[in-house]
Write a structure and sequence with these properties.
The structure is a single chain. By secondary structure, this protein is α+β, with helices and mostly antiparallel strands. The protein has two domains: 190 residues, Ribosomal Protein S5, domain 2; 175 residues, GHMP kinase, C-terminal domain (Alpha-Beta Plaits, 2-Layer Sandwich), CATH 3.30.70.890. It is built from ten helices and twelve strands. Strands 1, 2, 3, 4, 5, 6, 7 and 12 form an eight-stranded mixed beta sheet that branches. Helix 2 crosses helix 3. The longest helix has 26 residues. The protein is globular, with a radius of gyration of 21 Å. The model has no long low-confidence stretch (mean pLDDT 96). The structure holds alpha-D-galactopyranose. The site of alpha-D-galactopyranose has 10 residues, from helix 4.
Length: 372
């Protein structure tokens, strides 16, 4: 019987944080760590899933009784991905899945999107259905929103589904248009896990979305055609300040999104022109904006990025993902990557008493292999 092996990458976001659900731009890359799923078709309509990552637990359920909205933990993502495909009209078949991940769980590298997209890809292949990456990503996003109850944007699922080797994925989150940006060999991407759990991340995340929506409603007093913060320019923001219509929180959330959108496009341009020092500066600016205006950093992430910036060869460093803990990303000159990875861990551990993990990563695409 045919066995499929799906590698579904995690993602690290180079820049463009909390912009996706504001219809803006992001520039993540799919990475060489992720979720590996082996999958075999069954003759009945059961979905039987074993995870090697979470204590070898097994979940066995009929496809017509998934009850996805009432699950917790990894089951919510797996059953939610299956249910999202059923909702989209895909005729699924019974499957045995075995799941293994080498991503930090809940660490800001999209372990959940990697799982959702991986499960969806495996189930689609077993059902003999081909969907474009954007459709797979949208189904995985619905799994996260409706069944795992996180009101996320599209960045993670689309980066995982559409990312390519050796490229960052510049995404226009309004049109979902993807532009691949080559990652040149002069620079390397370092990920450092801060060892800070993302407590309350979901409620704070959903809260930020509500604050952005409030800012949009207020900005519509100036221009009723504004649909999201993507439509707000720095000139419109200045007008709002002159008229004193935005409260402090709404203003700072909007200022982060408006400035971050500009930084994403500038980083993509800096990569194309080989100006990596400037790309690094923009990554630093992104961190400070997330710390001061968006308020999703924390003492450890601030310390970690400061220590990184002090090391020779580091061009820029910032928190990556939703924030409130998790990982940081640094852009590093290729020749310095090993020494930066070796130095940052003891420096951070002794400054904070935590236990960091640092690894360089390369952009890698989702893949499906088949064997008999
Ligand atoms: C999480 C969400 C994404 C995005 C980031 C912040 O990873 O899943 O959609 O909003 O946070 O940029």
């Amino acid at each position: 019987m045919e066995t499929l092996t799906v590698f579904s990458p995690g993602r690290v976001n180079l820049i463009g944080e909390h912009t996706d659900y504001n219809d803006g731009w992001v520039m993540p890359l799919a990475i060489d760590r992720g979720t590996t799923i082996t999958a075999r078709r069954r003759d009945d309509n059961l979905l039987v899933v074993t995870t090697r990552t979470v204590r070898n637990e097994t979940d066995s359920v009929a496809l017509d009784a998934l009850d996805a909205a009432n699950q917790t933990g990894w089951r919510a993502y797996v059953r939610g991905s299956a249910q999202a495909l059923l909702d989209a009209g895909v005729a699924l078949v019974g499957a045995d899945l075995t799941i293994e991940s080498n991503l930090p769980i809940g660490g800001g590298l999209s372990s959940s999107a990697s799982l959702e997209v991986g499960v969806a890809t495996a189930l689609l292949r077993l059902a003999g259905v081909t969907l474009p990456p954007t459709e797979v990503a949208l189904a995985a996003q619905r799994a996260e929103q409706e069944y795992a109850h996180v009101n996320c944007g599209i960045m993670d699922q689309l980066a995982v589904a559409a990312g390519q080797a050796n490229h960052a994925t510049l995404i226009d989150c309004r049109s979902l248009e993807i532009t691949l940006v080559p990652l040149p060999s002069e620079v390397a991407v370092l990920v450092v896990d801060s060892d800070v759990p993302r407590t309350l991340a979901t409620s704070a995340y959903n809260q930020r979305r509500i604050e952005c929506e409030r800012a949009v409603t207020i900005m519509q007093q100036i221009d009723p055609s504004i649909q999201s913060l993507r439509d707000v320019t720095s000139e419109l923001l200045a007008t709002a300040v002159e008229r004193d219509i935005l409260d402090d929180i709404a203003f700072r959330r909007a200022r982060h999104v408006v400035s971050e959108n500009a930084r994403v496009l500038a980083v993509a341009e800096a990569f194309r022109s080989g100006n990596f020092a400037y790309a690094g500066e923009l990554m630093n600016d992104s961190h400070w904006s997330l710390r001061d205006d968006y308020e999703v950093s924390g003492p450890e992430l601030d310390t970690l990025t400061e220590l990184l910036r002090d090391l020779p060869g580091v061009l820029g460093a910032r928190l990556t993902g939703a924030g409130f803990g998790g990982c940081c990303v640094a852009l590093v000159e290729q020749g310095h990557i090993a020494s930066v990875a070796a130095q940052i861990v003891p420096a951070y551990n002794s400054a904070t008493g935590r236990s960091a993990d640092a690894f360089s990563t390369t952009a890698s695409a989702l893949s499906v292999a088949s064997s008999q």
